[in-house]
Specification:
Layout (H helix, E strand, L loop, with lengths): L1 E4 L14 E4 L8 H13 L3 E7 L12 H10 L4 E5 L3 H4 L3 H7 L6 E6 L4 E2 L5 E2 H5 L4 E3 L4 E2 L2 E2 L2 H9 L3 H8 L3 E8 L4 H4 L5 E5 L9 E9 L2 E10 L11 E5 L11 E12 L6 H14 L4
Parallel strand pairs: 1-4, 2-3, 2-5, 3-4, 5-8
Antiparallel strand pairs: 6-7, 9-10, 11-12, 11-16, 12-15, 13-14, 13-16, 14-15
Helix pairs in contact: 6-7
Length: 293
């Protein structure tokens, strides 16, 4: 698999010898509808398969997946070429004609695969009808749940509401974030519930404040745990939300380790307790609920 980071002026687009079935979209989340799009290209073409994506937020939205996570998911799906664009003002002002000439025409395109609502170029002037003038275009039917098209926007909305199980149905896997373990107030350890403070490494959609059943991965090893997303209002209330993870029975030094966290289920909202005894009682109840959810 080859990854090309394309500059905003499209002056470094490679000229490919391989015939290419190119999948069009942003692909944030690489959810089940994105997976179908890529699989359609792999099934209906014997050529190499490529995708386009972006290295930063579109329209200021938070991400469901980091670029590195998307690349890994594309690899699993059998993608051969990834073209990564910046999403800045210079790129947004490229016309559909410029995009065709500088990008599409340099690739050895055998077919394009897209949903009916795909658009590109300045003011979204480029669309499926425009592309059909020049290339074979395969329209892939929208994947629907509850009679509604699956979208990254809706998945983000589920996560913001704490509906991580529903988000997982649409993603085809649990929602995952990546972070690095940093030092906190050490208050969890003092309460006999040591927690890993997570410095989130990408601009992810933040789940609803509350306590979650999670699976954590450190050095590739999965461990069941609970995570609190929020400002821990009972002890040392924060002004900026963080993610804290408690892994039952784990002993070891996690500081500076990179951790992946999968959100499996929402256990309860974050709330302020009357004191440490009430907080400890609730944490014990949360741990009991891990094997019940």
């Amino acid at each position: 698999m080859k990854v090309y980071k394309i500059n905003a002026s499209l002056t470094n687009v490679p000229k490919l010898k391989d015939k290419l079935a190119l999948c069009l979209g942003y692909f944030d989340g690489v959810h089940i509808a994105h997976q179908r799009l890529i699989n359609e290209a792999r099934i209906h073409c014997e050529d190499k398969v490529g995708v386009i994506t972006f290295d930063s937020n579109v329209k200021g939205r938070k991400n469901l997946t980091s670029l590195s996570a998307r690349v890994n998911l594309f690899k699993v799906l059998g993608v051969d070429y990834i073209f990564v664009f910046p999403f800045n003002n210079q790129f947004k002002n490229i016309t559909r004609e410029q995009f065709k000439e500088k990008f599409f025409d340099r690739l050895n395109i055998s077919a394009l695969f897209a949903g009916a609502d795909f658009a590109f170029g300045k003011n979204r002037q480029g669309n499926i009808a425009y592309l059909k003038r020049y290339y074979p275009v395969h329209l892939v039917k929208f994947v629907k749940k509850a009679n509604k098209k699956i979208s990254s926007y809706d998945i983000a909305s589920f996560i913001k509401r704490g509906e991580v199980k529903k988000a997982a149905e649409y993603l085809g896997r649990p929602y995952q974030i990546r972070g690095r373990v940093t030092r906190g107030f050490q208050k969890g350890a003092a309460l006999n519930f040591p927690t890993a403070n997570i410095n989130i490494l990408d601009d992810y959609v933040v789940p609803k404040f509350g306590v979650y059943k999670v699976i954590t991965y450190v050095l590739g090893i999965p461990r069941l745990g609970i995570a609190n997303v929020g400002v821990h209002p009972t002890v040392n209330k924060l002004s900026i939300p963080i993610v804290e993870v408690h892994i039952p029975h784990f002993k070891g030094n996690l500081y500076n380790q990179e951790m992946y966290i999968e959100f499996i289920d929402f256990l309860r909202p974050e709330k302020k307790f009357s004191g440490e005894k009430a907080l400890i009682k609730q944490i014990n109840a949360d741990l009991v609920s891990l094997n019940k959810r």
